[in-house]
Amino acid sequence: DQQVKQNSPSLSVQEGRISILNCDYTNSMFDYFLWYKKYPAEGPTFLISISSIKDKNEDGRFTVFLNKSAKHLSLHIVPSQPGDSAVYFCAAGPYNQGGKLIFGQGTELSVKP
Amino acid sequence: KAGVTQTPRYLIKTRGQQVTLSCSPISGHRSVSWYQQTPGQGLQFLFEYFSETQRNKGNFPGRFSGRQFSNSRSEMNVSTLELGDSALYLCASSFGATNTGELFFGEGSRLTVL
User: Fold this and answer.
1) A53 in contact with B at a CB cutoff of 8 Å?
2) Mutation target vs B (from A100, A102, A107, A108; most B CBs, 10 A cutoff)
């Protein structure tokens, strides 16, 4: 039972263009949603999050959108840079469940110069 | 400020053996969570420890266990290893008092079971 799904295993984008990574979830009890970025041979690093009471959160080049009615989450990267090439995981959790997050399978983003 | 440290980074075991992995969280962090990552899968939650007590547990068999010490360092143990236990095991820490999901991950321990 995959409660968080990333249906695109990979995405290729030209440098300077927008990257859009998508994530769907099934559990309406999730209170917050996050995106993590992972480079090879490193652990995931937190990128950006959004709580269920918001529909948008922005941090520099990164914006996360939440559509609760569609149970859909997306990460926009504008403009995309070659250094953004990594695996991106979306994750979700109910509030105050500590370190217990449900992760998607990841999307490998490749930004080409 | 030192990050999350996991040891060993790589190890090879054979079926039936057991393994212990160690995690030192960021100084001041009281919560340690463990995740398993296998090819094609996302990260799957194993368990979380906070102030030496297991606070949350994922859907893994009892062969997977863990503990946390008074200095917040944590260990996880896998007994009677199976081929399917080959994975990257990630440890993550956070302050833990309240939590909205921002975890700090170590680089992981890559376990190969032959």
Assistant:
1) no
2) A100
Q: Which residues of A24-63 are buried (b: 16+ CB within 10 A; e: fewer)?
A: bbeeeebebbbbbbbeeeebbebbbbbebeeeeeeeeebb
Q: Is B50 on the interface with A (CB under 8 A)?
A: yes
A88 contacts chain B (CB < 8 A): no
pLDDT per position as a tens digit, B26-65: 999 999 999 999 986 779 999 999 999 998 899 999 999 9
Q: Which residues contact A87 (CB under 8 A, 6 or more apart)?
A: A37, A38, A39, A106, A107, A108, A109
